[in-house]
C-alpha cells in the first residue's frame, strides 16, 4: 500500500487494531452462542465479553508469541487469555483458524466496499452537477481523435455518470459476493461446532451465512470482488484519459484546478500539467493488477491450501485503499475542473464546418441522389477543406452536384440540430 | 479460436453468416421504424424486408468490396443494395457503423451467454446427481494436501454445486451487462436518428436501450462481461484440479472415464491420465487471458477510438467458445466420473486415526485441561503416529496425561460424528 | 488467430502440413541416428527417408485415426506406416510423444521468431529513413501532453529506433530461449533412447540440446519467450499512440497515409482516422494477453501435466502471427507516414514563446538571482501568456525583476539552441 | 510491500534515506562535472560535496515542503539548500526532475537485481548440494500425476538447477536492461545540460548512458525487467508446487523442515503442512502481478506523462522485495528439506512393476512384433494390474503373445536401466 495514495479511513480498516478487534468479536459472539447451546459455561462467555470488549490488543505481544507458535490465531488466543484469564480457554471451541480469518476478511472487504460505494457517490454527485452546468455547452465530439459532430460537454459528462451508476451497482454486487460468514470447523462439516453458531455470528457481524465452506470461504467470491474493482478502475481510467486529452495544449477545453504555489515542472515554469488524472491512470493499472492473482487464488487444493493468503495480504488492502483514493481524487478533479467553453467553441469551428458533413450527405440522399454519389460529393469538398483550401459551406454552394439549395445548405449548419435530444438523454440518466 | 475446443452451436454465433444476418435485421428493423416515423418511404422498408429477409449474404463478395472501401459496414450496405435494389439507399439513414456493429456484438454476446448459462446448468445437474449419490460416502478432507478430518464426497460436490450456482448468477448478470442496443448516430446525439428507432430495434433484438452511447456502447460493460467469464473459468479450474488430485496414482479416489481404444501414452501402455481435467486447467488460463485486454479496452479516446475492435475480434469468439466447450467438457467429466469409495476409505484409514485428533483435543479441554497442555498431549502422540511408530488410539490410551477414559476415547473415533450435519448443508444447497 | 491480422508466411508455420513435416523430420532424423547406433536396421531408416521425405501427410486421415486413439502422435505414426510401410515400426523407438511435440513447437517458435526479427528490421529501416529525413525538423516536445521545449521530429524517431533495437535484441534472446531439442524419453532419463540421438536431431533441426528435460522442455523458456513478445508489443503500442496523438485534429503534425477510395466513416465523409495505429494499439493488448497464461503454464506437475497444451495451441500461433502482422503494419505506417512540418512549426509557436521559459530561468539564476525568485518571476509572466493576455518575450522585457538585458532575452528564444546535440544523439543511435 | 515477506537488505534499498542519498549523489556528481565544464563555479561543487556528502536528509521536512510545492524534487532541492546553503542554487542546472528520479530508480532496481542474483545463487547452491546427495536415490517419475517410469530424486533437482541457472541469466539481462542513466534535460535534447554530464554521472553511479531519453528513460526497459521477475517467480512456483505434491499425505516423499514448537493447525494437532511452499506459490502470483502494469506503463504520451509513477511506487519495491524474500525462503526450504527415500521406494513399487511397461513394449517390437500388437498386449496386461488383479511380471509371463522369454522379461524390470544416463545429465548441469 502506497501511503501517498491512501485515505486514513480506508487504511484504518486494515490496521492490526481493527483486525484484532474483529477477531475478538467473532470469537466472543461465537462464545455467546455456544453458551446458549450449552457447549460452554454462560459465565465464561460473559467474562470474555466483560474483560475483552474494550481491551486494547497488543500487536507487538501477539507478534512475539507468533514467533514461537508460527501461527497467528493461536498467538492471538494466547494473548487474549493473558487479558481475559482462564475463561479464554472456552474460546474457539471446535472452530478452525480460517473461521476467524475468513470471516474477518469478509468484514474488512465489506467495510472497504462501503467506502468505495461512498466514493462512487461522490463522483456521481460531481458528475451530475457539472453535467447539468454544461448541459448545453457545445463542444466537438471526436471519434479516433478526429472531429466528428457537435455534442455538448454536459452530454459527455452524462455518459460518465451512467458509467459510474454501473460502477456503483457492480460495487454493491461485489459487496454481496464477499460479505459471508463461515464458522464451520476444520473441513466445513460442523463436526465440532453447531451451524447455529455460524448463523448467530453472521447476523451479529452483518454478514450472510456461507452455504458451503470447506475450511475456507470459497475464493471465487473474492475473484469476483477484485474483478469488479478492476472494472471500476478502468472506468476511472477512461474519465482520467478524457480530462488529460482535454487539457492538451492544442485542445485546452478543460483543466485540472491548479493551486497557487504549485509548480508544474522544476525546469519549465510555464507548465500546468494534468498530473492528477495521469496519476489516476496509473492507479487504475495498479488496482487492475489485483484481478489476475485473485483469479489464480480460486483453485485452492482440496479443502484449502494457504497459497491465497500472501496474495490477499497484498491485494486486500492495496486494491481497496488505492481504489478508494482514486475515486475521491477523481471526485475532487471533477468538482473543481476548470472548463473553457470558449475554447470548446473555437475548436468546434476549427474545421470550417466540416462537422456538418453528415447532414449534407443525408440531405443529398433524401433528394434522391444515390448514397455512393452523395458520399463522393461530400467527401470531395471535405478533402479540400482538410487541405486548408477554404470553407466547407462555400465549396458546397459552388459544387453543381451538390443539389441542395443554398438556403437549405445554410440551415444544415445549425448547431441546435445536434442538441435537440440532449434532454432525452438527460432524462435517461437523471430521471 | 481453437476448433478442437469448440462446439458447433457456439461457433455458429460468430460465423459471417450469423453476423450479416444480424446486421441486416438491425438495419431493416431500423428502416421499419423510420418508415413509421415518416423519415423514409414505407414501401422502401417493406421492399427491404421482402427482398432481404431470406437473402443469403455473400461474405466473399463483401470482403471483395471491403478491399476497396476499407470499411466493413459500407461494404455490407453496398452488397445489400446488389440484392435489394435501390431501396437499399434508405438503409442506415442517420446511423453510424457502430450502431450496427455494437448492437450486433451485443446480440452475439447475449446468445453466447445463453449457451454458457445452459452449460452451467448441465454442470449443476451433474454435480447434483453425483453429490446426492455420494451424500454419505466418507472420504478424507484435506487442507494443505494433508489429511485433516473426514468429510463425505457428496459434501465436496455440494460445495462445487454452490460455486456453480454463483457462476450461473454471474453469467446472468454478465448477460444483462452487455445486452444493450445503441442506435444513436455518429457521436451519440441522435442528431440524425430518432431515439424511437433505438427503442424499437432494441425491443425487436431482445436488448435493453443503452442510456448513453457515444459512438459506441461503453466498454466497461464488456470488461464486466469478460471478467465474469474469467471468474467462471477459475471455478472450472478449481474442480478440474480437484479431479486431477483425486486421480493421482497414490490417491486414486476418482478417475475420468477411460474409453476403450483410448491410449494414455505412446510410450507407456499402462497410463490412464486425467487429460480432460488437465485440459480444462489450461482452458481456464486461456479464458482468463481475455480479462485484462477487455479492461484495457475501456478507456477509449473521447467518443471512441477503434483500438477495442481487434481485441474483441479475438476475445469475443475465443473466450465464449472456449468457456462453452469447457463447461460442457466439465459436465461430461462429472457425469461419467469413476468414483472409488473403497480407495477413499483406505486413504481415510491411512493415518491410523489421526484425523480424529481434534476431537480428542476438545475432549481434553472440556475435561478442564488447559488448551496448551491438551494441544501438547495430542500433538506428542500424533507425531509418533506420523513417524510410523504405531496406532493413534493405542498411544492415547497409554498416555497418562490423556485423561479421557478408554471407552470414551474409542467413541471419539466414530466417523458418524463428522457427517451429522451433511444434511444441513445439503438443505442449504439443494433446497 | 484472426485472419484479418495475419500474413501468410506467419500462418504457414502453424499449418498442419508444416507441423507434420516437422514431426516426420524429427522422427526420421532420430531413426537415422538410431540406425547408426545399431538400435534399428539401417535399411529401415533409409526406407523411411526414401518413402517419407516427400510424402504429403493427410491431416484428415490423421484426424480420423485420432478419433479412435485419442492420441495425436500415435495417430500420426499410424498414418506414416500407411505410406512408409512396415519399416515405420522402427520409428519413435524409446521416444515419447513430447519429444516430438516439444521439439516441433521449438522449431515453429524459432521460425516465428525469425519472422519477428525480420519485421523488426523493417520497422528499424523505416524509422531510420524517416528519422534522418526529419533530423532537423523542429517540433514541440510535450510532457504530460503539454508543450515543454523544442525537439526535432527526427530526434523523436531516433528514440523509437533505439527502442526497436532493444526489441530486436529481446527477440533474439527469446529465440535462443526456446530453440532447444528434447529427445529424452518418457521422463527424461534417456532410458530407452541414447542421448546421442538428441544431439543429432538437435543439430539437424537447428536447435540446441535441452540440458534437462523431464517429459517436456521446461516451460520457463516459453514464459520468457512470450514475455518478450509482450514487451515488444508494448513498444509498438507506444509508437502507435504517438502517431494517433499527432493525427488529432487539433495537432495534425502527421497522418497515416490515406488511400484513394478509402472511406473514413460511413456517416461522416470528411473523416480521416488513424485506424491503423488504433488497430496496432489493440493488437498490442492481444499479444500481451499471452504473457500471463504462458507464466501460469510453468508450474506443471512433476515431470509434466498437459495443462499447457491447450494454452499453447492458442497463444503459440496467435501471439506470433499477430505480432508479426503488427510489426509489418507498423513498418508500413512509418514508411508512408505523412509528415506536416508546417503544422509542427505552427504548434511550436502556439504558446508565444513559452517553450523557452527554462532558458530564461537558467539565465536569471546564472545572473545570481536565487532559484526561488527566478522561478517565481518566470512563472508569473508565463501564467499571463497562458491566460492569453499576450506574448511571453514582451512580458519578460517589461518585468523589472527579469534582469536579463533585452537583447540577451531575444537570444534566449533561439530554436537552434535546442537542436545543438541532435547530432550527438544520432551518433549514439546510428553509429 | 508486505513486511512479513521482506528482508531488511531489500527493504533498505527503497527507504527514503537511501533515495535521498542517491538523489544527492546524482545531483552532486552532475555539479562536479558542470564545474569542470565551467558551467558553475568549482567552489560551489566543492561546497556541495563538503556539506552534503554526509548530511542526513530529513524526510519529514521534505514532505512538509512538498505539501506546498506539490513537487518532490523541488522540495528536496529546497531542503538541500537549507543544509548546503546558497551554493545549492547551482544544483540541478539545466536538468529536469526525471533526470534525478529515473536515474535513482535505475540505481535502486540495479541494487535490487544484485540481491535477486545473490538469492538465486543461494537457491542454486542448495539445489546442487541436494541433487548430488540424491543423485542415485530412485523415485518414480510422474506425468499427469500418474506413475510413469523411474527417475532419481537427484535428477529431478538437477532439472530445477538448470532452470534456476536460466533464472540467473534472465536476472543478469534484466539488470542490464534497467541500469542506465539519463541526464538529458526537459525533453531529452541536452539543450541546457552537456551530454558529458550524463556520461560522468553514469560512470560514477555504475550505470550505462541511456542512448535516447525523452524526458524519461524509456519504459520498455522496465517492462522487460518486471517481465523477467515474473518468469523467475513462475520457476519458484514450479519448485514450490513440486514440494507441496511430495508432502501430500499419500505421497510423503519429502517434507518441509518442521520446527519444534511449531503448530500446524489450531484445531488439528497432528498436522504438518507445507506452508512455506504454499506461501511461495502465492508470492509467485504477487510478483507476477507486476508484469502487466509494467507493460501498460510503456506507452507514455509523447516525451512522457506521469502515469507510470504511481505504478512504479507500488511494483518497484513490492516485486523486488517479495521476489528477494521468496528466493531466500525457497533456498531455506531446499537446504533443510526432509527427504524420505524409503517412501520413494515404496511408491515406486506401488504399481507392481507397471512402470516398466515401456521396456516390455520395446522388447516386443524389437522381436519383430508390430507396434500395434505389442501395444495391445502390454496394455491388456497393464490394465489387469491397474484393476488390482495381480502382478505385472506374472501376467506377462503367462501371456502367450508376450513372446519375450521369462528370463529376459525379468531383466527388463531392472531399475539400473533407468539411471544409466543420470551422470550424462549431471555433467550437462554441473560441468
UniProtKB/TrEMBL annotation, chains A, B, C, D:
Q: Does the keyword Chloroplast apply?
A: no
Protein name, please? Adenylosuccinate lyase
Q: Which organism is it from?
A: Brevundimonas subvibrioides (strain ATCC 15264 / DSM 4735 / LMG 14903 / NBRC 16000 / CB 81)
Q: Name one GO molecular function term.
A: N6-(1,2-dicarboxyethyl)AMP AMP-lyase (fumarate-forming) activity
EC assignment: the record states 4.3.2.2
Pathway field: Purine metabolism; IMP biosynthesis via de novo pathway; 5-amino-1-(5-phospho-D-ribosyl)imidazole-4-carboxamide from 5-amino-1-(5-phospho-D-ribosyl)imidazole-4-carboxylate: step 2/2; Purine metabolism; AMP biosynthesis via de novo pathway; AMP from IMP: step 2/2
| Known catalytic reactions | N(6)-(1,2-dicarboxyethyl)-AMP = fumarate + AMP; (2S)-2-[5-amino-1-(5-phospho-beta-D-ribosyl)imidazole-4-carboxamido]succinate = 5-amino-1-(5-phospho-beta-D-ribosyl)imidazole-4-carboxamide + fumarate
Matching entries from CDD domains are given as: Adenylsuccinate_lyase_1
Amino acid at each position: 500500500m502506497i501511503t501517498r495514495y491512501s485515505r486514513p479511513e480506508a487504511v484504518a480498516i486494515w490496521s492490526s487494531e481493527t483486525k484484532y478487534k474483529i477477531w475478538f468479536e467473532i470469537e466472543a459472539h461465537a462464545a455467546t452462542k455456544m453458551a446458549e447451546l450449552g457447549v460452554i459455561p454462560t459465565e465464561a462467555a460473559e467474562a470474555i465479553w466483560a474483560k475483552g470488549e474494550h481491551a486494547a490488543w497488543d500487536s507487538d505481544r501477539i507478534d512475539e508469541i507468533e514467533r514461537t507458535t508460527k501461527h497467528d490465531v493461536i498467538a492471538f488466543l494466547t494473548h487474549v487469555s493473558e487479558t481475559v484469564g482462564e475463561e479464554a480457554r472456552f474460546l474457539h471451541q471446535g472452530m478452525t483458524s480460517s473461521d476467524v480469518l475468513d470471516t474477518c476478511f469478509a468484514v474488512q472487504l465489506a467495510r472497504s466496499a462501503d467506502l468505495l460505494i461512498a466514493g462512487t457517490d461522490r463522483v456521481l454527485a460531481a458528475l451530475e452537477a457539472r453535467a447539468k452546468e454544461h448541459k448545453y455547452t457545445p463542444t466537438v465530439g471526436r471519434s479516433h481523435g478526429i472531429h466528428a459532430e457537435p455534442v455538448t460537454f454536459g452530454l459527455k459528462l452524462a455518459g460518465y455518470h451512467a458509467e459510474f451508476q454501473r460502477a456503483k451497482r457492480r460495487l454493491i454486487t461485489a459487496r454481496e459476493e464477499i460479505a459471508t460468514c463461515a464458522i464451520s470447523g476444520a473441513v466445513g462439516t460442523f463436526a465440532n461446532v453447531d451451524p447455529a453458531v455460524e448463523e448467530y455470528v453472521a447476523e451479529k457481524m452483518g454478514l450472510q451465512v456461507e452455504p458451503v465452506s470447506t475450511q475456507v470461504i470459497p475464493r471465487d467470491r473474492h475473484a469476483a470482488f477484485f474483478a469488479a474493482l478492476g472494472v471500476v478502475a478502468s472506468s476511472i481510467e477512461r474519465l482520467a484519459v478524457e480530462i488529460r486529452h482535454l487539457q492538451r495544449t492544442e485542445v485546452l477545453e478543460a483543466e485540472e484546478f491548479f493551486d497557487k504555489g504549485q509548480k508544474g515542472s522544476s525546469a519549465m515554469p510555464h507548465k500546468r500539467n494534468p498530473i492528477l488524472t495521469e496519476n489516476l491512470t496509473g492507479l487504475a493499472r495498479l488496482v487492475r493488477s489485483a484481478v489476475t492473482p485473485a483469479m489464480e487464488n480460486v483453485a485452492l487444493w482440496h479443502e484449502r491450501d494457504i497459497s491465497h493468503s500472501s496474495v490477499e495480504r497484498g491485494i486486500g488492502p492495496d486494491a481497496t485503499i488505492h481504489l478508494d483514493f482514486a475515486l475521491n481524487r477523481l471526485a475532487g478533479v471533477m468538482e473543481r475542473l476548470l472548463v473553457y467553453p470558449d475554447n470548446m467553441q473555437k475548436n468546434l469551428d476549427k474545421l470550417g464546418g466540416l462537422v456538418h458533413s453528415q447532414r449534407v450527405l443525408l440531405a443529398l440522399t433524401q433528394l434522391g441522389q444515390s448514397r455512393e454519389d452523395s458520399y463522393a460529393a461530400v467527401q470531395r469538398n471535405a478533402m479540400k477543406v482538410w487541405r486548408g483550401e477554404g470553407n466547407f459551406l462555400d465549396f458546397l454552394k459552388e459544387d453543381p452536384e451538390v443539389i441542395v439549395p443554398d438556403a437549405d445548405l445554410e440551415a444544415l449548419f445549425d448547431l441546435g440540430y445536434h442538441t435537440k435530444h440532449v434532454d432525452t438523454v438527460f432524462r435517461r440518466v437523471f430521471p
